[in-house]
Amino acid sequence: MSAQPHHAAPPSAPAPAAAAQLLAELRTSRRAESWVPAFERDWAGALDDARHSYSLAPLHTVVAAWTARLAALSAVTAFLESGMDDSDGIDARDVLGTRA
To answer: Where are the domains of the chain?
Structure first.
């Protein structure tokens, strides 16, 4: 018997300005040079998906994935700077479930 409900509630939608706030934070991060264009590319793809599906879910997914990346940045940076072996790592897309 599973402890999970059979009909879990969907995650709450981000605030209307969440993407703009996230982009502002990405622009001030250490990885702004590569992350800002990647976010903009993901956002453009999600906008296209949303237009075709009439759903905001693709946009919410992009905001959630990039929020998670930004939240993990300091821990990942500390790990990489510690000299630990990261050869057994996995792709962030596998963890975050972002679009292909």
So the answer is: 54-82+93-100
